[in-house]
Amino acid sequence: xxxxxxxxxxxxxxxxxxxxxxxxxxxxxxxxxxxxxxxxxxxxxxxxxxxxxxxxxxxxxxxxxxxxxxxxxxxxxxxxxxxxxxxxxxxxxxxxxxxxxxxxxxxxxxxxxxxxxxxxxxxxxxxxxxxxxxxxxxxxxxxxxxxxxxxxxxxxxxxxxxxxxxxxxxxxxxxxxxxxxxxxxxxxxxxxxxxxxxxxxxxxxxxxxxxxxxxxxxxxxxxxxxxxxxxxxxxxxxxxxxxxxxxxxxxxxxxxx
Length: 257
Ligand SMILES: [Zn+2]
Description:
The chain has 2 domains: 31-114 and 190-255, Muramoyl-pentapeptide Carboxypeptidase, domain 2 (2-Layer Sandwich), CATH 3.30.1380; 116-180, no CATH class. Helix content is 38%, strand content 12%. It is built from 9 helices and 7 strands; from the N terminus they run αααββααααβαββαββ.
């Protein structure tokens, strides 16, 4: 094979792996969300993925959530809810970890399924302190901060992305984009019931076992966060994802866009 053809074969277009009725985002915010959180949309093996990157309100979320089959299971004292196929593979991973004398446990009651309101509250928990911080630093006027604060939660997103382009970041440690810290309202993978935040994310053996059962890290620098893709690791590149390695030899799979 000529080198050029070989390279072409390697460039697998993520878009061709999206579900048939998927609504490709047109807005700047929607495109960024697809780029950062979109690995989810190639998930397979019996799960359903949303047909959009942004849910507009609680109504849209609950209609979609009630259209898919879910299971609730108590793991380490927390009752969590996931799509049934994702839960089945998670339970297998938890059992394999236990056989090897360690554990895979959720970080809290909101570690799997979330409601639209929960994504709004988490968003505000980052945005509000960051607005105060940057106002005190003289990077934002009080009037500007107040204006952003008074917007509807989703309308804040574009304003915050614009500030981040100028180095005014809203992640928890204020050093990077808020999307690596908390999802904008209506965009969290947790709404799809295919994501789980765990305590043992630092353990490479935990990560290996989760990967064996189709659970991967797909949001760069959100370390406790795992996503059910329902594929083996060697299928991911051919599904339109690319691998990002961090300095701790952690692997993240994100859309190859
Ligand atoms: Zn998460």
